[in-house]
Design goal:
With 426 residues, the protein is α/β, with parallel strands linked by helices. It folds into 3 domains: 172 residues, Alpha-Beta Complex (Quinone Oxidoreductase, Chain A, domain 1); 152 residues, Rossmann fold (3-Layer(aba) Sandwich); 46 residues, no CATH class. 27% of the residues lie in helices and 23% in strands. It is built from 15 helices and 21 strands. The strands form 5 sheets. Strands 3, 5, 6, 7, 8, 19, 20 and 21 form an 8-stranded mixed beta sheet that branches. Strand 15, helix 12 and strand 16 form a beta-alpha-beta unit. The longest helix is centred in the middle third of the chain and has 13 residues. The two termini are 35 Å apart.
Length: 426
């Protein structure tokens, strides 16, 4: 089979860190860490496994962080390379062992979390026993080696290939009424939904979502799927992001550069000038979801959350130098991390985040999440795909997906509602 393989190399990491931002071609060109390779077809590791043929597989910000060496080395003990990347997947079961109840041809999404059961540990760790394999205590151990999720595991190929492996516990059937372009977003939508449930805003709460990339837009969609009656402001950098935020139910959209002025004008936040540095405020938002994870976005989040409010860190923040944490203790803020998915407790029900998202997509066909899928590429066009992902201002990309079963001259470029690379988007 064909697959896009990321190969870890310390010299490449050093070059990516030093020059990747200025010479992005080094990240996706012939010297880059990703290659299209011919690999052995995966074999079932046991009766409880299935071979899945990905139909669409998303390019995640975490994938780009690994490729460009922007992720913190703190995560490195919990991955293994070389690996076929890709953990946002909708596909069809090609074949399965007798322990899998779903027949070949079933359309599924794959929860990439690797549990104690998958790793071969019995009894399971406390987190896995509670239904949260994303937080597995044995993430660096077990049968398949170190990995938090499929896609960063040398032994389990991810969705950027023509075939992948999935344990029965990872498979969720996609309802017929949910199109592939919606189903491929289940994983990031699950991250957004879980983040909302980590700090669920109340009726009338003033909510700020910083970032209108895939995760920010998915979080906004999750707020609307849950029917929460909060007033939601979205900080969107680009025009296409602002348009999508409005379509997904944002009450107000503002450029990140105007967040402070907007909080003063609409929320009555009062600004005070310190002896050095940026203005500080009293008043602000009840809940801030930071879906970027940069120094500036975290600084804005901490400054613009009201006294006693909450900041939920959803973006993949890593090492952040010169971030002022004064606001956390001075305002008694709750700072909450959110990244995964598992068994949620919602309105008296206990249900997996993926199942809740699929249920929400089926119940809200008018919520246009599929408009986030702006670009689609065959595996052989991975260089164009990564170029578009690394320069979203030029490409107009929001969510880029691979179509692993498409030929090299197949259905690349614009998806429904999107624009092909280099056209500047909508």
């Amino acid at each position: 089979m064909q697959g896009l393989v990321y190969r870890l190399s310390l010299p490449r990491v050093a070059v990516a860190r030093l020059l990747g931002g200025r010479v992005p071609w080094l990240l996706y060109g012939p010297l880059g860490p990703v290659r299209l390779e011919t690999l052995p077809d995966p074999q079932l590791p046991g009766d409880d496994w299935a071979v899945v043929r990905p139909v669409l597989a998303g390019v995640c910000g975490t994938d780009l962080g690994v490729i460009s060496a922007r992720t913190s080395p703190a995560a490195s003990p919990f991955s293994s390379f070389p690996a076929v990347l890709g953990h946002e997947v909708v596909g069809r079961i090609e074949r399965a062992g007798p322990g899998v109840s779903l027949p070949p041809g079933t359309r599924v999404v794959v929860d990439p979390s690797l549990s104690c059961e998958i790793r071969g540990y019995e009894p399971a760790c406390d987190r896995c026993a509670e239904g949260w394999p994303y937080l597995c205590a044995n993430a660096a151990e077990g049968r398949f080696g170190p990995a938090l999720i499929t896609g960063y595991c040398a032994a389990l190929p991810g969705g950027w290939g023509e075939r992948m492996l999935a344990h029965r516990s990872q498979l969720f059937t996609v309802p017929d009424e949910v199109a592939d372009e919606r189903a491929v977003l289940v994983e990031p939508l699950a991250i957004g939904l879980h983040a909302v449930l980590r700090r669920r805003p109340g009726d009338g709460d003033r909510v700020l979502v910083i970032g209108a990339g895939t995760i920010g837009l998915c979080l906004l969609a999750a707020l609307r799927m849950l029917g929460l009656r909060a007033h939601v402001t979205v900080a969107a950098k680009h025009g296409v992001q602002a348009d999508l935020a409005r379509a997904l139910g944002a009450d107000h959209v503002v450029p990140p550069s105007r967040l402070a002025d907007d909080a003063r004008q609409r929320l009555g936040a009062r600004g005070y000038k310190p002896i050095l540095g940026r203005t500080v405020y009293r008043g602000g938002y009840d809940v801030v979801y930071d879906c970027v994870g940069s120094r500036r976005s975290l600084d804005d989040a901490l400054r613009l959350a009201r006294e006693g409010g909450a900041v939920v860190v959803v973006g993949g923040a890593g090492e952040i130098p010169w971030l002022d944490w004064t606001f956390v203790w001075m305002r008694e803020l709750d700072v909450i991390g959110a990244a995964g998915y598992g068994l949620e407790h919602v309105n008296g029900r206990v249900k997996h985040t993926f199942a809740l998202v699929l249920e929400g997509l089926a119940a809200h066909p008018d919520l246009p999440v599929e408009r986030m899928v702006t670009h689609r590429f065959a595996l052989a066009q991975y260089r164009q795909a990564l170029a578009a992902a690394l320069d979203r201002r030029r490409s107009g990309a929001v969510k880029i997906v691979f179509a692993p079963q498409a030929g090299s001259s197949g259905d690349a470029g614009a998806a429904a509602g999107g624009s092909p690379p280099g056209t500047g988007g909508a």
